[in-house]
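Recap from last week: sequence in, structure out.
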Amino acid sequence: MIDKPKGIAYLRARLQALKASASLLLAGICLLGGPAGQSYAGAVQEFNAGRGGQTINLKSLPVKGKATIVDFYSLYCPPCKTIGPLLEQLTQKRPELAIQKVDIQRPEVKGKIDWQSPLAQQLGLRSIPHFMIYDSKGNLTAQGPEAMKRVGEMLQEAGLLQKKPRRER
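Predicted structure tokens:
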């Protein structure tokens, strides 16, 4: 059994370690421009951090002066988990491109994709990942299947995704 003075010393040491970790995390968020900050080259920004699944103003999605891919996703979506790291790599290869990730999942809905979230309902989502692509002037140029096709092409051009070979019949 740990005596009281040793237990208090242990708890103080753990608290100090926790404070140091929180400080590093906060510094990292600040360096990335904050949860809703501007997107910098080589960074994928979480657009609705802390507000997962809530409706959004679609006009606020594009990053000024950059072509922007908006990725609507859920942590419970296997294809979303696969494409996320590829999008991160794409921003490394294409600094003129910004990626905004938007979580459709409400925090209280666990273990399955939250198709009933206010955001999923706002957009009429039936599948994810769902992409919207904006040009550098903030004009929507593609969404849904067309945007998915363009994202795939961008990933192939960047050498991050292999083109599927055609099956012979």
